[in-house]
Each structure stands twice: as structure tokens, then as C-alpha cells.
Amino acid sequence: MNYSDVIAARFLTFDQMYSYEKRLQTFADWPFREDCQCTPEQMAKAGFVHCPSENEPDVACCFYCLKELEGWEPEDIPWFEHAKRSPDCGFLQMKSPDELTAVDFFRLEHGRMVNYLRKMAHMKIAYFRDQVDVTSRNLRLLFEILPHGGSVMQGSSLDPCNVMRGALNPSSICSAFPQILTKSCRRLTELNK
Predict the structure, then answer these.
(1) Same structural domain, 98 and 177
(2) The total number of structural domains that make up the chain
(3) In the chain, at which end, N or C, are there fewer CB atoms within 10 A of the end residue's CB?
(4) What is the largest CA-CA distance in the chain?
(5) CA 111, 57, 109 angle in degrees (round to 5)?
(6) How far apart are CA 36 and CA 49, in angstroms?
(7) pLDDT digit string (tens) for 48-87?
(8) 73/167 same-domain check
């Protein structure tokens, strides 16, 4: 399961986590118990849900703002750590859950959804930027491999049409990236017939 799937699953299940008791239940295997500030009770009061993994047994995530914190130390105060890293979290600013009206609850749920959508959008933007970087590197590599550094000289001037024809020459591309562009090579070959 990729990270965006994990976030989506958390968002869908965390609607139950307005309840302190439900949050507290998630800390059954929490590594910090006694003689410390970050007990399960304090973690749950600060809005956290325990989300351990094999490599990170102390990951806690706010059910509301989806802020993940790990690397907890016994002297860490959950409410303070949460407020320091996510000062605009709606959970930290809400009144007592016992005093919530239906309107308050729907406003909070709206804010929770906005947090989720913002987090997913940031992840998609980061993924897109990574793909742009990979594509740019591949194109630079391709143009370095092509004759004349990707340019085709006509007389003493550069002919842009020939540059593109040279860049889109299936034999050049396919020989440069045979394992990556197999389908694209077939398609380019068909287009050039």
C-alpha cells in the first residue's frame, strides 16, 4: 500500500476518532507507559491515534490534521508537540467534545476534509514534480545520445523541424532506451510509416 492509500484509509476511519476512548484504544501497544509525559492517555487527549509500522513503533497521527509525529521521547508533552508542529489544527482549538453542537461537528468535519484534500494535493504535486524531474533527465540524456547533441544542422543554421524529426526518430529513441520505451517505440514507428 502506498502512502497516499495509507492517508486515504486513515481519513476514512478517523471519523470515529472524535471519541477520546476510541483514540485511547489505538495505543494498546504504545511503547511509553509509566514515568513519562507521553502516556497513551496524554497522546489520546492531544488528538493522536497510534499508527505503528514495523520500523517505527512510535508513530502517532492526529486524527484531525493528519500530522504524523515519530521519535517520541519520554519527556515529550503530546499537546505541546502537536501545537508546535501543527498550530492551526482544528482539534487543538475545539471546545470540549461533550459541548459540540451539530453545527460545530459539521464545521469540524469540513475542516478535516480540507486538511485531507490539502495533504493529498501536496503529495500529488510532489509526485508530479518528481516525474517532471525524471522526464527532464531522460530527455537531456536522450539529446546527449542523439547525433549533434540532439540538433540537426542544415547548412550553417539549425532547422527546428529536423531537430524534432531527429529527436522523434524511433530508431534513435528505441536504441537509447530499449527497456523503458518499448510501447512508445512501437507507436513512434507506426506514426512514422
Answers:
(1) no
(2) 2
(3) C
(4) 82
(5) 10
(6) 18
(7) 999 988 888 899 999 999 899 999 999 999 999 999 999 9
(8) no
